[in-house]
Amino acid sequence: MSLSDKPIVGITVNQLSGFRLLTDPLLNKGTAFTEEERDLFELHGLLPPSIGTLDEQIARRLEVLRSFETDIERYAFLRDLQDTNETLFYALLIRHLEEFLPIVYTPTVGQGCQQFSHLYKKPRGLFLSLANKGRIASILANDRFDGVEAIVVTDGERILGLGDQGAGGMGIPIGKLSLYVACGGLHPATTLPIVLDLGTDNQERLEDPLYLGWRHARVRGTEYDDFIEEFVAAVSERWPHVLLQWEDFAKGNANRLLERYRDRLCTFNDDIQGTAAVATGTLLAAVAVTRSPLIKQKIVVLGAGSAGCGIADLICRSMIEAGLPEDQARGQFYLVDRNGLLLQGMKDLASFQMPFAQPANAIENWSNDRNNPIGLLEVIKNVKPNVLIGVSGQFGAFDKAVVEAMSAASERPIIFPLSNPTSRAEATPQDIEKWSQGKAIVGTGSPFPAIVRQGIARKVDQTNNSYIFPGVGLGTIAVKSRRVSDGMMMAAAKALASMSPSALDPKDNLLPPVTALREASIAVAQAVARQAVEEGLAQHLDDEAIRRKIDELIWTPAYVTYTREIQDLVGGAGQ
Prior knowledge:
By secondary structure, the protein is α/β, with parallel strands linked by helices. Helix content is about 40%, strand content about 10%. It has helices at about 20, 35-40, 55-65, 70-80, 85-95, 95-105, 110-115, 115-120, 135-140, 170-180, 205, 220-240, 250-260, 270-290, 305-320, 325-330, 375-385, 400-410, 430-435, 470-480, 485-500, 515-535, 545-555, 570-575; strands spanning about 125-130, 150-155, 190-195, 245, 265-270, 300, 335, 340, 385-390, 415, 440-445, 450-455, 455-460, 460. It has a 7-stranded mixed beta sheet, with helices on both faces. The protein has a 5-stranded parallel beta sheet with strand order 1-3-2-4-5, with helices on both faces. Helix 5 (about 85-95) crosses helix 6 (about 95-105), helix 20 crosses helix 22 (about 515-535) and helix 21 crosses helix 22 (about 515-535). It starts with 17 loop residues before the first helix and ends with a helix.
């Protein structure tokens, strides 16, 4: 069944005319309404007389976008365009993805979250606050949400590396779902961004007279858990096959909510599992360049929260698949947090950190001050690792001494400063290139300018979740998988690694170019869907049937002719 065969939200072109049609972002075509459509829908006088095309509209918006001096101005302009004409917004974004991905997503989306209450113009998605307790199911029941297939939800407590942004965290679900559409090919009418506004502990937000969120200290404990339970129960009842992505929850909630709900509905946490998949996929490509097998890698991770432990866990699973016994595989990882190297017996270790805590005898021969926490540099000097991954949110944590120690320990050190946004990156690629004397293989979480190596400018690999989550969503939805398994995330990582340009030329990039994200997402979707079928999480389909189901979901933004006949929204929006 194609998208045009099924009703989406029950709003038809037949029900809208005049100004109401122009204010519906899913149906608005602006100056591209034809003379006949202007007759039918009472649009004469509401638009300039010239009939435009999508190409002309894109050129006009590009001219304005490129005239702005700051990225936050571009972000605000694109958000307004998205709320005015989604077909135009996505056509522009897809055609100029490399230029505008850093605007609609990281790093600029972080600033968008910080300034959300000052930039806000039009409603998008759902804001569910504690005042809505007991009413969530009725809010979700609105028929405009009938066709929802993908939800991204946050509570705004840990937005990128910027911390608690309260209701401003809504910028993240909006940005993520924009990439589900632009990269994954979902139709925008099937997506729903949600923020669970349970207060904020960000005093700057609470004191801001324009702050739009609930002005209250962040709710925790049983009251928090009860609200989440009501939300999940309402989502499961409303949309039995929906994909629910958890986004930017703090360490104390991210893992436990994932474990609580991952077997109740089709859900995953992108910070934990998506980050792990893109890091694993990129690492698999990197070790192929070094010609050193994965099981030989010693890996240091700075930042032992949900993301860091998720990365370690998926890479560890890869080592086990490659034949390394589990205890040996876990012993290859050294996780460093604010209290230093994770060691068995440390106080306040979270359950998800314990599998990667090193035994005390592992450091008995180390040269260090036993009275103080063991820091990153000490770990590197003693372990002599091949791989260094940063998800700490600490700008500059990979300083010259750290990079030089990595270069002394390995002929081709693999260094991934993955923290977002750019202002939180552990190091810049330019500094790593200089301090490692061109030896390091680098991947970053946010976009950076090209580095110059041997007189040649080389693009920096953006080891970002945008290579993973759109394809995971597309594949999962296409086959109606009941769950998102670890095996599906591993399949996504391997699919990404298989597309590495460096497989053909070791001097080339580890990841496909950003301009190929839609193609990469489709390949990831096929691998994820195939794995779901193999694990019995979806009905049995052969590879050709999986490909057809994925193709049927792919939406391409284009204008089609409107008539007064009743037609469903997605079919009317154009494929």
